[in-house]
Design brief:
150 residues; mainly alpha; Arc Repressor Mutant, subunit A; two-stranded antiparallel ribbon; transcription regulation; transcription
Length: 150
């Protein structure tokens, strides 16, 4: 089914525009909330994925967060400069680089859940639990994540 046509397409009413607007607004608020931790919302994703043991290489980070490898490299450079992560070559296969949290990175990552839920909850305060669950379901369907549970 085609939901958009040349006749009914309005930029500011399109799903892409509205998703991007929501993302940008939320990211600005998350960045502001994370400022005391000296990280950004994008960097937060890397730290959380590492502390939870979900990823260990730049490629895994890129795939898990849905970002390109160039952006991943730039963010890892910044995190490394802040002494939050370090990169180490795998001894068995020198082509593989592992990303490890430093002690400081682990401490910062563990503080993130004390900060970001407040931002999300402010954005969702006018949603009922059913609306929240429906939004989550629809976003997962839109991104294709409902096809890959867990």
């Amino acid at each position: 089914m085609k939901h958009y046509t040349r006749k009914n397409y309005e930029l500011t009413e399109s799903i892409g525009f509205l998703l991007n607007k929501a993302r940008n607004g939320m990211l600005m608020e998350v960045d502001a909330a994370l400022r005391p931790l000296e990280i950004t919302g994008q960097q937060m994703g890397i730290l959380l994925a590492l502390v939870r043991g979900e990823v260990s290489t730049p490629l895994e980070i890129s795939r898990a967060l849905g970002i390109d490898t160039g952006l991943t490299t730039r963010m890892l450079d910044k995190l490394e400069n802040k002494d939050l992560v370090q990169r180490r070559r795998c001894e068995e296969d020198r082509r593989v680089v592992h990303v490890l949290l430093t002690q400081k990175g682990t401490e910062v990552a563990r503080r993130i859940p004390d900060v970001t839920p407040d931002v999300l909850n402010r954005r969702l305060e006018d949603f009922t639990i059913d609306e929240f669950n429906e939004l989550l379901r629809l976003l997962k369907k839109f991104t294709g994540d409902d096809l890959h549970p867990g």
